[in-house]
Amino acid sequence: MDVPIWIWAVTIAVVIGFFVFDFFTHVKTPHEPSLKEAGWWSIFYIALAVVFMFGVGLVWDWQHAGEFIAGYTTEKALSVDNLFIFLIIMTSFKVPKIAQQKALLIGIAIALVMRFAFIIAGAAILEAWVSVFYIFAAWLLYMAVKQAIDSFKDEEPEMPKWVNLVRKVIPASEHYDGDKWKILENGKKVWTPLILVIVALGFTDLLFALDSIPAIFGITQEPYLVFMANAFALMGLRQLYFLIGGLLERLVFLDLGLAFILAFIGVKLMFHALHENELPFINGGEPLLWIPEIPIWLSLTFIFGVLIVATIASIIYTRAKGGEPEASAVGSAAGGPEAAAAGVEGTTPETAENTDAAPVASHEPDHR
In this structure, are residues 234 and 83 in contact, taking their beta carbons and an 8 Å threshold? Predict the structure, then answer.
């Protein structure tokens, strides 16, 4: 089914409207969101995605509705995993609590614009050359193996090295003034570090899209559903950051669960590529029609099943280890630089301010 241009236009206008609403109701007046506020708004955006799924089912068909919710769930799960890097960036740049909402919202908006370009380009490539599914499948299988191996490494997640280059490219002060963009320093107006944080968040999320977008194309080839799954996942990401920032360390099996999901979607894409085969050196360029197409109900069952098992296993494991994991800068970064500094033994908010980047304390990857 081809989605008319006017539906695209209305959809994009509504998405922009939500970002504008978010900005004027939550971000324009700087404040630290409470767990209650973050929780209710997280539920709102999840409910909105569910309502959209039913809308797709009633207006389009339930096959596509299932593809949307499977894609949305995958994007949401990958976003939770990526919040670790967001926490590290916030800690490194020592972002004040009242400025974190603005940094996240604008950074996520930038990421969604760039993802939209990725999605349109990906859809055009897939339509012109169906064999690109082989490349997507191989990439996802590689990422799945890498994610599985990394999940057993006793290493703290690191901030991408290129983020430090942002400091050199964009000159900025080392001081904040609430959530202001510029401050007066030595008689001149200069950028605050907030501009660096926003650029770092936006482009970091774009790098995350290198595995998430091929993954969702493995679930549905409808660009409109791919975009909406990304939009809903990203729109609720800011609230999710404040809601579960301190709980991420408890999800010790999430990385491994996501590796299984990426591998499953990689296999699904490979089956689809073989079913639509056009490569002359495979079966003489003819489709392998005996290769099964994995139905959407099986994809949904597998994705939800893996996430449920990973979550339950994480809860059981952390409780068996003696309850809550040790506090760290990563786990407390959502509470601001003061909390991040306090999470590092022997470090105070005052001493953290005198460092180039807030230290990231090691936490035991309990399952590794």
Answer: no
DSSP class of 246 = G
Encoded tokens for 210: 């290198």
List the beta strands (DSSP E) in the chain.
182-185, 188-191
Provide the β-strand partners of residue 208: none
Q: How far apart are CA 214 and CA 122, in angstroms?
A: 8
The sign one gets for the Cα dihedral 338, 202, 261, 232 is positive
What is the DSSP secondary structure assignment for residue 106, as one 8-state letter?
A: H
- Beta-carbon neighbour count of residue 368 at 10 Å? 13
Q: How far is the C-alpha of 84 from the C-alpha of 330, rounded, in Å?
A: 7
- Find the mean pLDDT for residues 309-334: 67
Does pLDDT of 68 surpass 80?
yes
- CA 21 to chain CA centroid, nearest Å: 21
CA neighbor of 89 nearest in space, from 366, 329, 349, 253: 329
Residue 86: closest CA among 210, 238, 261 = 238
User: Does the pLDDT at position 323 exceed 60?
Assistant: no
Q: Tell me the two tokens of residue 299.
A: 């994809």
Work out the angle at residue 215's Cα, subtended by the Cα atoms of residues 211 and 220, and round it to the nearest 5 degrees. Answer: 150
Alpha-helix runs per DSSP H in 129-178? 132-150, 162-169
Selection from 6-20, 84-98, 246-260, 337-351 with the highest mean pLDDT:
6-20
Higher pLDDT, 257 or 206: 257
- What gap in Å lies between CA 261 and CA 73, rounded to an integer? 11
pLDDT-derived band of residue 169, with 50, 70 and 90 as boundaries? Answer: confident
- 94-103: burial string, b at 16+ Cβ within 10 Å, e else: bbbbbbbbbb
CA of residue 157 relative to chain centroid, distance: 15
Contacts of 7 (CB under 8 A, 6+ apart): 224
pLDDT tens digits, residue range 136-159? Answer: 888 889 988 988 888 787 665 555
Specify the pLDDT at position 57: 94
| Dihedral angle over CA of 261, 267, 273, 275, nearest 10 | -120
**Spatial contact of 115 and 75, defined as CB atoms under 8 Å apart:** no
